[in-house]
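Field: sequence (string)
Field: structure_tokens (string)

Example rows 1 and 2, in order.
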Amino acid sequence: MTSTGLCELLKVAVKFMENESRRTPIYDLAKLANASPSAVSSVLNGTWKKRRISRKLAERVMQLAEEQGYSVIVQASLLRRDRSNILGMIVPKYDNRYFGNIAEQFEIMARVRRFFPIVTCTQRDPDREFEAAKELVSYQAECLISTGATDPDRISAFCKASGVQSINLDLPGKDAPSVISDNYAGGCFRGIG
């Protein structure tokens, strides 16, 4: 896609967001389902069995939620939960096959384990890396993986102060566990024999 095509696509997306109608609140779903807002909330957050809500009501609420395009507002639900299940990864480049593969595998493995992965690209800009780290921490990421960060210790120090686990990948740091590859040994040819 050309940069002109990408700009046009972004303009359409922004225009769509500006014209988008309001989200369906939980109270509207409750009215449609003929149930209380707390019952609907329990169905949507998966605790309906503990509250002894009938399967029939749970299925009706889930169907209505899908039909109405309802989605849970994550920031609000984070206030009620101990864990966010968000894992963050900072990568320097998407167009680099090495980092692209790492990001893809990270997403696959996180989702299999029921985590929500967020990957952000920082173009090897140390200030952008730090801003991305702050943003991910503000979304209550439980762990932040800095891949190829130019200043991993700055990010690790911030994460430590925020109580967020951090890991360095590809470039070592002193303030967090680091997983690095041995490019020299990987590039050596070893004969069989």
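Row 2 begins here:
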Amino acid sequence: MSSRPALPFLSAAGRAVTPIAFVEGILAAYRAYGMDPGPALERAHIPPDLLNAADGRVTAAQFEILAGFAMRELDDEALGWFSRKLPWGAYGMLCRASLTAANLEIALRRWRRHHRILTDDIHFELHVADDLAALSIVENRDLGPSREFCLVTLLRYALGYSCWAIDSAIALRSAAFPYPEPAHVSVYPTIFCKDPRFGAARAEITFDARYLTLPLKRDETALNAMLKRALPLTVLPYRRDRLLVDRVRELLRAPEARFAGAEAIADALALSMRTLHRRLQAEGASLRELKEDARMEIASEALARGRAPIKRVAHAAGFRNEKSFARAFRGWTGETPSAYRRRGK
């Protein structure tokens, strides 16, 4: 049974999106252990000349084969990052130790604590302030040339497991890294979020703290099945986001979102428009419906609580004129705004 967790930079099995720099990270492990990577490259069908291409890419399937073969052959799931090996099965142990947690926050705190049993070279930190959760990595030694590969992979290990455990995509608010922007920066929005930041104090991802309150949805049987082949955790991105509908509703109720289009809303959520629409559809909702619901709630509350002119209520609900507002309100409630206000008194 494989214990390898989700690999960090895979999006579609048939597309070459994994930077050759990450392949080089695996080759560096072979060099550190004085072993020949030739058989691993051959098994993954990665031609030697591709290794010299600065903008080279390999497919998800190729990288899965290469990484899996290397972890077994070197008996090191950390691929040479740390001062001692993490034997085959180490990250599977972390997954198993966190599985019985009541919610994601407890699971991640267990992950943090148990990871220190594996190595002191780095440790995870989880901080929660107001509505924001931050998962970061503290480096306790020089990680050398594999620093980027190590930090990116570790964050994706924790994030991939978290998404799988709660059966939900976790939309990142931000992602930051403590090194200069790499040449292959274009892959970062795919594996993390839009507009990653470089030159930061430490590697860190942030997300809505409400994800931490979600219960784990997996059991031992599901874990055993996942550990046999963890690639789908990243090759098949989660379409379900159990908080997305609530986050969109909150955003649409803000005054600045009254006339916001789909692009502006997607940008505020750090998502592409395509991803926003796809994930809402997976949740049985649409942006148009959520906009209508938000407008109706804003208008109904304004009419019920005060004596503001109908024209002002219309504007507050995102309508450009009173006539279109009255028509929409009648469609929602079956009565005019004025009649609704009188009935509420």
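free_text_note (row 2): The chain has two domains: 16-235, 244-344.
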